[in-house]
Amino acid sequence: MRAGVPAVSREPRTAIATVCLSGALEDKLPAAAAAGFDGVEIFEPDLVASPMPPGEVRLRCADLGLSIDLYQPFRDLDSTDPERFAANLRRAEHKFGVMEALGTDTVLVCSSVAPDAVADVDLLAEQLHAVAERAAARGLRIAYEALAWGRHVDTYDRSWEAVRRADHPALGLCVDSFHILSRGSDPAAIADIPGEKLFFLQLADAPHLSMDVLQWSRHHRLFPGQGAFDLPAFLEPVLRAGYAGPLSLEVFNDVFRQADPARAAVDAHRSLLALAEATAARGQGADPVAEPAPELRGHAFVELSADESLAPVLAALGFARTGLHRTKPVERWEQGGARILVNRSGGQVAVAALAVESADPTGAARRATRLSAPRLPRERGPAEADLAAVTAPDGTAVFFCRTGAEQDWTGDFVPTGETAPGIGVTGIDHVGLAQPFDHFDEAALFYRTVLGLEPAATAEFAAPFGLVRSRAVVDAQRRVRLALTVSLLRRGEWAPGVSEPQYVALAVDDVLAAARSARAAGAPLLAVPDNYYADLDARLALSKDRLTAYRDLGVLHEETPEGAYLQVCTEVLGGRVFLALVQRIGDHDGYGWTDAPVRMAAHRRRRLAREHVRTRL
Fold first, then answer.
1. Domain VOC, which positions (predicted)?
2. pLDDT above 70 (res 550)
C-alpha cells in the first residue's frame, strides 16, 4: 500500500448488550447507535423496566439503525421435576411472543443453577430438543450457554455435548469469553464445532482475580483490551469454526453501569474495533479496521498550564527558555532531549498536553479518528504548524508530531537565544497521569488502541488516603511511557493528599549529581523522612556514603533483580504537578511505585506546612 493512503477495511458487525450501559433502555439504545454499533442484545430486566412495549422498542431500534440480535437471558429451563419443566416451557412460549414483537429470532438460554437442574446429559438434550422444537415452530432459535457457575453444565464442551445430542437445527451454542476463560478452559477446540452451530458470541475481558467466579462476573468484567484475558486467542478459533454473527459485548461492571452511557458506548465500540484488528493480525476475521499505529519515537514535548511559579523551578532544574510562541502565551523550555512548554494562559498548574514523535503524524491522526478519539479543535495562526491532536479521556490533549519534518512545531516559536548549563537531563522518561475513577480503564484502552502502546507494569499500593491502582503503557522500544494511576475509592476531604497528581519524570544518567546541582540552584526538592532511609539500609545494605547522599538529597531507591530506579522529586507545584529526576540502572522497567506512599505522604506533609505558614501570615 502506498504511504499516506488509508487502508480499505472490511468491518465486523458489532453489538452490545444493554446491560453494559447505564440508564434506562431509552438512554442505552441511542448511545449504542451513536457509538457505531450495528445491533444490541436486549437484556430482559431493561425491557421489563421500560415503558416502551416490545413493538415500540423494535421500531425505536429500526429508527436508530440497530438490529436486535439477541433477547436474554432465559434462566433455569431444564428440571428433573416434570411439572416444573412444563411450567418452564409455558414461560418460554411467553418469551417467544416477546421476541416476535421485538423482531429478534434468537434467545439466550443459560445452563441451570437451580437445585432441580438436570445432570443426565441425555435428559438435558431431550429437554433442549423440546424447547427448540417449540421455537422452530415460530421461526426462532435457542442459543444455549454454559454459565461458569452452572450446577451441572459449566463448561462449553459440556454445553456442546448437550446441544450435539439434542440434534435440532433451531438449537445452537452461545460461547462467552468470560465463562470460558474465567475457568481456565482452552478455547482451541471451539474451532472443531460446526460454524452453523455457533449461534452467538459474547465477549468480555476481566482482570485476573482470586474470588468467587459469580462475583467476579457480576462486578469486574471489562471491555476487550482492558483486562488480562487473551481475547484475540479466544476469538481466533471461534472465527476459524465459521462463526458469522456479530462480535457482541456482555460486560457486567459496577463503574460502567453508572457512567455516562454515550461515553461508555464509544469506549466499548473502540474495544471491539481493536479486538478485531488484533485478531486479524493472527489471520482470522475481517481486515484491520484502521491502519496500524505508526511507530513512536519518543516524547516530543509535554505542555504544562502554569503560573509564574513554574519558570524558576525549571531554571533551577537546568532548563533554558529557548523560545516564545508567535501568537500564544506559551514558552518553550529545553534541556537535552526534554522539551516542556509552559502555557501562561492561566489556571491550575497541570499537564495540559502530551506530544509524541510519530513516524507518520497524519496516519496516526487518521487512526485516532477511526477509533472514535475526539479531535481537538485548535486555533492556528498564519504559518503555524497544523498539528493533529485528539483528546484523551481525562481531557489531556495528545499531539502527533514529527519534529524537524514538514509541519515542524518548533517553527511556531521565536528563539530567545537563552542557554543554560543544564544538570544532566537527557529527555523525558515518562509522564504520570492520575485518572478520574470512572475513566481509568477507558484511558488505558485509549492509549493502547489510539497510540499503539502496550500494557507494562501494574501495581496496587496503599497510599496515605486509600488504595491506588497503577498501570503503565509503553511502546515496544520504551521510548514513550505513560504511568496511569487511580484512587480506587475516594471519600472524605479531611486534609486530603494531592488531588489527582500529575508529574513529568526527567531522565538523567546520574541522579545524585543532577539533584546536587538542582538543589544548589534553589530547586524545591522534596524532603524524605529518616525512617525511610533506616528501612532502606536494612533492606539493601548500601554504603554509608551513598545512604548519606540519599538522605541529604531526598533520593528514593527502588530495586529489583533487574536493576534499580532512583528518583528525586520536587515539591508539588501549584497544587497538582511535580517534576522528578529519575535514573534507571540495569534493566529496571518500573516507575517507583514501591516508594509512592512515602512520596505521597511527604508531598502532603509539605503542603500542610505551607498552608500553616499562609494562615499564620
1. 427-571
2. yes
